[in-house]
Amino acid sequence: MVNSSNRKPLQENPKFQWRFISPKYWITWSGIGFLYLLSWLPFRVQLVLGKWLGNLLHVLLKRRRYIADKNLQLCFPNMDEKERSQLVKVNFQNTGIAMFESGIAWWWPSWRFKSKFKLIGQEHIEQPRKSGKGALVLFSHILPLEIMGRVMSEYKPYVGFYRPHNNPVIEWVQYCGRCRNQNLMISKRDVKSLLKALSDGEACVYLPDHDYGKKRSVFVPFFAVNDASTTTGTEIFASHKNAVTVPTYMQRLPGTQGYELEFLPQLSNYPDSNSRANAVIVNNWVEQSVLKNKEQYMWVHRRFKTRPDDNAKPLY
């Protein structure tokens, strides 16, 4: 297991640049500064403001509202229109709250943050670490995702596999926020570094439930969609001889209780030599997680944008 006090970056970290203070980025800095100030409000107030923001986004973001509704139609064809419409609205409220949660995750001190979460099933991630193995920790794209990473880091430092933000100022700020507690981040294109981290016995966070295109993907069922593009990247990392695969479940608890992160038992018989079967196992875990709390899943993503037939009519 890696000594967390001696962790070295696996890639070149984003650095502050003087061009970041040019007028081009003043609006960006204003937004970041406003979010920082809001992050110090009482937790209850942030939840209320986030819900209001979500209601506003529900009205303004018609395209995203359509995508969320379409995803629910595809995944749950027996859900009636009224229930689906209400679920989309609540989902947007949770999306608004998630924007405030970024500030909480990046800037709250540990003493304040620790009062708002609890961990379950730590033995499932401690077991591989005690034997010197790396853990491929599977997260799903839930809306409190930034909080999920922070909860993980308050327990043990981790290595995150992520897509850098296009805006260099936001990228620098979010990178610094995510690297609290000695976390390390790796660009999603740097496969070799993630494999090295597993070799070194790190806990590596990976999110396998978005549509990443046809490359390194197979088409398998996801809810009622029989041909959802599903990455095979999960099995590539899970096949590492020094890695075990640990799925998780995370939720924002009712009211002001905070958050709960559960480490689940390691995936059994995973991976094997059948890429389609491996992808089905991962999608089944995602489905089980989503069904526990559909309101907090990231439905605004075009989960089914990639089709097996390039000439097929787009679903969105």
Order of helices and strands: HHHHHEHEHEHEHEEEHEEH
Instruction: For the largest sheet, list the strands in their spatial order.
Output: 1-9-8-2-5-3-4
What is the beta-strand fraction? 15-25%
Structure class:
alpha/beta
Cα-atom Rg, whole angstroms? 20 Å
Please summarize the sheet with the most strands: 7 strands, mixed
N→C terminal distance: 45 Å
Helix content: 40-55%
Strand tally is 9
Q: Quickly count the helices.
A: 11
Q: Mean of residue pLDDT? A: 93
Low-confidence stretches: 1-5
Quick one: overall form?
Answer: globular
Question: What does the model show?
Answer:
The protein has helices at 26-38, 43-60, 62-75, 81-107, 110-113, 123-130, 145-155, 168-178, 191-199, 233-238, 275-292, and strands spanning 117-120, 134-138, 159-162, 184-187, 203-206, 217-222, 225-231, 243-252, 259-263. The relative contact order is 0.16. 44% of the residues lie in helices and 16% in strands. It contains eleven helices and nine strands. The protein is α/β, with parallel strands linked by helices and 316 residues long.
